């Protein structure tokens, strides 16, 4: 299993498209203390589906993770409830809250990621013939920041 | 260059006795012993056989083998036998050893240092026994130089026998500039290498030029001994640049010679390509490249080659000393090296007859496609680094540069800088100091710049309103995060023992240190200084080495700003600068490593993303610290190209192409492989390889252009489908002009992302 992290400032994210193709699972991650990063999730999801071009976009496995729950409550900008509502509206996406700093919840989240990826691979759900031209140019700027 | 005429005349007074002197018998003893064949032997003792020494250049070497220890120093001379016309003037090369102890040596030295006449006043000798001819020009008379020699390489031929001269200035893969003489007879003459740094007269001439001409013009080509020689030769013979091969000068060309060197005649038929003409063809790319290739041939192939050689090569190969070496298989390498060097001239001459016959694939195939870079026998050698003493010697007593900028850059490009020189030299390379500044100007620049930095820093430091801005806070946080993970293995950045000044900071608990805080302030200041661009990730990597070298925040800031001018396009919001470079790399790999490119196409890897980080921060994460400093100062010279970092990328691919093609067929595998090269790349090897690749790229472009022009001549309709397209991106790689692209204004509400 390979885990790719499309890290860095937003302007470098356009690089990520090269890695989307062939992915078996996509983790959408935001900062629970940063509302903007949460609001950008939908854009990231759409962007992924366009670039990865899976055969059945509606059932492609995404996992949503809200990170940095170690930060004091007063700074929390996105409630668990709000996040769960979003995940439900996108087809019951699994949702986890983690603290990478304190290693809370990370293992559970990635276990689900791995399971979903394996399932996806078994199903061989990807379009093999690439009937549509796939844009691998770097033109795809997304407009908000997830970092 | 005109000498002060009164000086010449004064000098000539002292010359009167020299023509009266008796020829040193030792000179001839030496020469006969070493096997000189003197044509005019019978007349040798007679002073009337003396020849007028018109030109002399010291430290012109013959390189009989690829080993530097075999090099033979000598004088290149133009001499006029008594009453001889210009076409009878002799072009001679005399080894130093044969002049040793003779009085002639003094005259060779003197004429070298002080040419006896203004070059354009060379006229036929009217009275050989006088020290001055009627026009008052001083004459220097010497014994006739040896006409030819088997063992010492000495030669002497009349200008009328020279068909053409191939001119290879220094640089572009040739450390020493050289000339190759092509004779009209079958005679094969050794290539002449001008060791300019050893030749007193060339050094003086360079200094003179630096004084006389615009010394700081960047495009100024390196002055070298061969050029000086050609200037003198021009007064004796018509030199015409070949339209087919600009490096060839035709000497007193006849109309048919011109045709032979014009594109039209290049289509001469050659029935079947034998190994030798294939080898000959390759010669054009570089003798040493071929040397390396030839030494890999088995003996049988070598013999095969000899059997099928053109007559002139057979003549050469049948020379006793060549034969002797050839019989000894263990020495085959030396033998073949000699052989290759010997036929270089032949190859150049034959080229007009054979090269362009089999179409582009053949030429490109042998020259570009399957080319193998060998780990031995590089024609390009890296030099030792510029030390403090050498650096100081570049400047006169006022602290003004006394070399041309391109000479200094050439030196840094090939050798790099010693650590002690960097804090000075980098300020020139990064544009903080103008190249033509003197010491006192630089002092005032430093003090102005220092004040300016503290003013810029104070501006945001004291601006509480600014510090409340969301964008500013976002950027500050990003900078601090990055600074705390940049080069922490470097000693000055490693400690965290200073309490953090800001209890709100994410690093309040972990602590910080003075240098990390300085880096942070520097980057925040840059964020305010270049407000459209702002801080972007990767910049901390670019700043840190500068900070460590200067250990002075204000100086480091301006050096960083200089560096950022050329790096700004890497960080643009729309990534257009990075895209452009990846595209150029794509074209470069298509042209230079076509097989690898096909492999990349199959592996969906032609976006070259695995070079993104390398190009973004100039291999900062790929090389060890010391190598990064070396690499950057080399790249800052723009000596061959302002885009040399792309040739570094090409070199890395070239080095790893077999491994990649053999084992990795998926994009992620290739990416992983490339990422894991980090800290395992040999810098010196990479730089040599990059320079060779640049040279080959340049030659390829030249050749394609020439070939295209030739086809246009042949057929207006143009059958050019076989020729590769040289894109604008590729042409731009030949430019030394730094590409500076500024970020556009930051849109309102745009974050720091």
Automatic annotation (TrEMBL), chain A:
<dbReference type="GO" id="GO:1990816">
    <property type="term" value="C:vacuole-mitochondrion membrane contact site"/>
</dbReference>
<keyword id="KW-0547">Nucleotide-binding</keyword>
<dbReference type="GO" id="GO:0005525">
    <property type="term" value="F:GTP binding"/>
</dbReference>
<dbReference type="GO" id="GO:0034727">
    <property type="term" value="P:piecemeal microautophagy of the nucleus"/>
</dbReference>
<dbReference type="GO" id="GO:0003924">
    <property type="term" value="F:GTPase activity"/>
</dbReference>
<comment type="similarity">
    <text>Belongs to the small GTPase superfamily. Rab family.</text>
</comment>
<keyword id="KW-0342">GTP-binding</keyword>
<dbReference type="GO" id="GO:0042147">
    <property type="term" value="P:retrograde transport, endosome to Golgi"/>
</dbReference>
<dbReference type="GO" id="GO:0005829">
    <property type="term" value="C:cytosol"/>
</dbReference>
<dbReference type="GO" id="GO:0044877">
    <property type="term" value="F:protein-containing complex binding"/>
</dbReference>
<keyword id="KW-0488">Methylation</keyword>
<dbReference type="Pfam" id="PF00071">
    <property type="entry name" value="Ras"/>
</dbReference>
<dbReference type="GO" id="GO:0000011">
    <property type="term" value="P:vacuole inheritance"/>
</dbReference>
<dbReference type="InterPro" id="IPR005225">
    <property type="entry name" value="Small_GTP-bd"/>
</dbReference>
<dbReference type="GO" id="GO:0000329">
    <property type="term" value="C:fungal-type vacuole membrane"/>
</dbReference>
<dbReference type="GO" id="GO:0032258">
    <property type="term" value="P:cytoplasm to vacuole targeting by the Cvt pathway"/>
</dbReference>
<dbReference type="InterPro" id="IPR001806">
    <property type="entry name" value="Small_GTPase"/>
</dbReference>
<keyword id="KW-0449">Lipoprotein</keyword>
<dbReference type="GO" id="GO:0032889">
    <property type="term" value="P:regulation of vacuole fusion, non-autophagic"/>
</dbReference>
<keyword id="KW-0636">Prenylation</keyword>
<protein>
    <submittedName>
        <fullName>Rab family GTPase YPT7</fullName>
    </submittedName>
</protein>
<dbReference type="GO" id="GO:0006897">
    <property type="term" value="P:endocytosis"/>
</dbReference>
Automatic annotation (TrEMBL), chain B:
<keyword id="KW-0343">GTPase activation</keyword>
<feature type="region of interest" description="Disordered">
    <location>
        <begin position="119"/>
        <end position="140"/>
    </location>
</feature>
<dbReference type="InterPro" id="IPR000195">
    <property type="entry name" value="Rab-GAP-TBC_dom"/>
</dbReference>
<protein>
    <recommendedName>
        <fullName>GTPase-activating protein GYP7</fullName>
    </recommendedName>
</protein>
<dbReference type="GO" id="GO:0005737">
    <property type="term" value="C:cytoplasm"/>
</dbReference>
<dbReference type="GO" id="GO:0005096">
    <property type="term" value="F:GTPase activator activity"/>
</dbReference>
<dbReference type="InterPro" id="IPR035969">
    <property type="entry name" value="Rab-GAP_TBC_sf"/>
</dbReference>
<dbReference type="InterPro" id="IPR021935">
    <property type="entry name" value="SGSM1/2_RBD"/>
</dbReference>
<dbReference type="Pfam" id="PF12068">
    <property type="entry name" value="PH_RBD"/>
</dbReference>
<feature type="domain" description="Rab-GAP TBC">
    <location>
        <begin position="416"/>
        <end position="639"/>
    </location>
</feature>
<feature type="compositionally biased region" description="Polar residues">
    <location>
        <begin position="124"/>
        <end position="136"/>
    </location>
</feature>
<dbReference type="Pfam" id="PF00566">
    <property type="entry name" value="RabGAP-TBC"/>
</dbReference>
